[in-house]
Structure to design on (405 residues):
């Protein structure tokens, strides 16, 4: 493969960092091993660079990107220097990784995916958190963790990787998380959180606090839970206070593809969200439904991840789109072949979601044509995917919809 250059791997290098997409037979990797050069997985390198810092690691099947970004925002807003590693584009941030010699803290999004082709540990096991958080557990990455029991066990192990004098912040609303915490005998401090009290007024969310109400840009019950988790972590940082945290939340605008508003009119909003797993679909649809209870909700999701396209996982989606008024599901059959997965039929997908008012498409143009033909007044549209709907221009579609009279 001409994109790899093993001749550039020489003994002049101190080390190489092995990304998750490189295979075990990668020619540059094999050359490094042959020369005895130290090989880091990416998380191992992050640990090496942050060994003297307070490592804050945010784990969970959902919400970890948002919670991570909330904590980073709160620290930076209050001029508390921090390093970070996060998996999505953040508002006002050019880079998603920061490593310095001066920051006391590092905030890390703790992905449970594997570290590298030669290191099969989940990434969040490697960071040795001083402060760890688990937001919730819902089976994902079925291609790596073929049973729910195996998947749960990764979070059990994560708890045991927290440093002996460390702290675990956890969502006690999640039955499985609470069970793992209750059975844990590690010498760590355990701090529970639940959904932050809030109210919705004129389509905007407000946190309810002792001093009154805090207006927010983000919305949805799941985000109120994310805020509660972020706050508990921030309260463990000596330079922070309740007031400082809430002041920061006044200006927090979220992350890319997390209920991202693409276009709007007085009666129509179009959103794009990263939701792809069943629990994320349920939470995201519920958020838009609660925020705009008087508007008709059109939900459109793409089966894109290896888990979502796996015939043995499809049934996990049962009921996940029930809160929408109109439900569209799209998948590209070519992806199944590319990923070596068994073919699935539109009938299988329809039956898996368990809702008669659902339409399944393998032809993207046909689906978009039907969506654009709807009467767009007092309606919201929600696109949900971890992919890109075969490369459509979301902003262009959103603009078309909000210009339909």
């Amino acid at each position: 493969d001409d994109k790899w250059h093993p001749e550039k791997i020489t003994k002049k290098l101190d080390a190489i960092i092995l990304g998750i997409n490189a295979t075990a037979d990668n020619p540059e990797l094999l050359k490094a091993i042959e020369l005895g050069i130290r090989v880091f997985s990416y998380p191992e390198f992050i640990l090496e660079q942050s060994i003297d810092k307070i490592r804050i690691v945010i784990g969970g099947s959902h919400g970890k990107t948002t919670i991570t970004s909330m904590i980073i925002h709160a620290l930076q807003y209050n001029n508390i220097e921090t390093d970070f590693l996060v998996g999505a584009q953040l508002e006002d941030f050019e880079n998603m990784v920061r490593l310095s010699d001066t920051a006391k803290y590092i905030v890390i999004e703790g992905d449970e995916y594997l570290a590298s082709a030669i290191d099969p540990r989940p990434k969040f096991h490697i960071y040795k958190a001083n402060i760890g958080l688990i937001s919730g557990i819902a089976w994902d990455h079925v291609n790596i963790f073929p049973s729910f029991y195996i998947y749960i066990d990764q979070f059990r192990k994560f708890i045991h990787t927290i440093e002996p004098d460390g702290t675990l912040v956890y969502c006690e609303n999640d039955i499985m998380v609470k069970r793992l915490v209750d059975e844990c005998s590690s010498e760590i401090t355990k701090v529970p959180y639940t959904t932050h009290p809030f109210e919705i007024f004129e389509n905007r969310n407000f946190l309810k606090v002792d001093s009154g109400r805090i207006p927010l840009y983000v919305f949805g019950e799941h985000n109120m839970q994310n805020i509660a988790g972020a706050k508990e972590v921030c309260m463990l940082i000596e330079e922070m206070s309740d007031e400082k945290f809430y002041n920061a939340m006044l200006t927090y605008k979220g992350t890319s593809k997390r209920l991202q508003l693409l276009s709007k009119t007085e009666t129509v909003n179009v959103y794009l969200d990263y939701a792809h797993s069943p629990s994320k679909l349920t939470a995201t649809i519920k958020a838009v439904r609660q925020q705009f209870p008087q508007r008709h909700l059109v939900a459109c999701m793409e089966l894109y991840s290896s888990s979502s396209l796996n015939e043995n996982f499809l049934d996990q989606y049962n009921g996940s789109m029930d809160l929408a008024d109109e439900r569209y599901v799209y998948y590209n059959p070519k992806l199944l072949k590319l990923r070596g997965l068994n073919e699935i039929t539109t009938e299988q997908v329809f039956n898996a979601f368990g809702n008669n008012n659902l339409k399944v498409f393998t032809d993207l143009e046909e689906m978009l044509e039907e969506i654009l033909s709807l009467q767009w007044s007092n309606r919201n549209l929600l696109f949900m995917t971890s992919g890109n709907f075969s490369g459509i221009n979301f902003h262009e579609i959103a603009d078309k919809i909000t210009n339909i009279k």
